[in-house]
Amino acid sequence: MASITAAETDVRVPASMGSYEIAITASGTAWTVTEEIAWLEAVKVDNTTLRVSHDENPETVERSGTVTATISDQSVDITITQNADKRPAFAQDAAIADQTYKRNVEIPALTLPQATGGDGALTYSISPELPAELTFNATERAMTGTPESDLPPTTFTYTATDEDGDTAELTFTITIGAVPAFADGAAIADQTYRQSVEIPALTLPQATGGDGALTYSISPELPAGLSFDAGTRRLSGKPESDLPPTTFTYTAADEDGDTAELTFTITIGAVPAFADGAAIADQTYRQSVEIPALTLPQATGGDGALTYSISPELPAGLSFDAGTRRLSGKPE
Length: 332
Known about the structure:
Layout: E1 4-6, E2 10-13, E3 18-26, E4 32-35, E5 40-46, E6 49-54, E7 63-71, E8 74-82, E9 88-89, E10 99-102, E11 110-111, E12 116-117, E13 123-127, E14 134-137, E15 142-145, E16 151-161, E17 167-177, E18 180-181, E19 191-194, E20 202-203, E21 208-209, E22 215-219, E23 226-229, E24 234-237, E25 243-253, E26 259-269, E27 272-274, E28 294-295, E29 299-301, E30 318-321, E31 326-329
């Protein structure tokens, strides 16, 4: 009596294209195989082996069909079930914010979202190619680097791909702009001025780069009597009061708020001064006649003790005592 059995009668195969072999035990060699499944082909390999080859399942639901091995009037049915295609996906609320970076400024590391699902391990990529000096670590899903050139708003696609080529995607833009900068070595010397004495006009360095026109400023507020013309970048004026060494910041700012800065100090000291209206009357003396002692006016202000002098050298016989500010003697 004829007989036929299969080692497995309920076979599950993956969603990807492939083949699967099933051991057949039959009472003779004249067994045959039949199937009517569009996505599967069953063939008799030899007297003990049945091979089923299946296409990739592109659907997200599983599918099945029956293969029948027959000898004489005996047969065995084998059910082949193919898994649904498992496609990768990002979380429903996953998104990548549009990124704005500055040329020659290192970006904060950006870790991109992780996808789940799919068939096998997922791999990650970004397209098109990132700007120069930006890199993407696919293992850590992290974008890092220091961009070297400007880039107008450009759309990039972040893709998660499973082993059978299914993908999930997110898009975002990258914009790279210049930042203002002073020339290498640019500096402002520390400034020392005198109270009530006009300073020589000081033109501060010009910056380049940035987005749009640059504007210039100095902070904190300048001492009374000094002013800064942002259009000409000139510091000028006549300081009205003393100022100990104080640090000021000179800033160039572009239209989107990026800045470059230089710092310098301003020190203002007092200068000696005679009282308003102070004067020395012109003096007329007689040769060989002692003059009445003349005490000259006292000044105030300045830094430290004041010293007094007369120039050019007095005529012979006259002398000036700097300590008492007295002119005396007998002209010769």
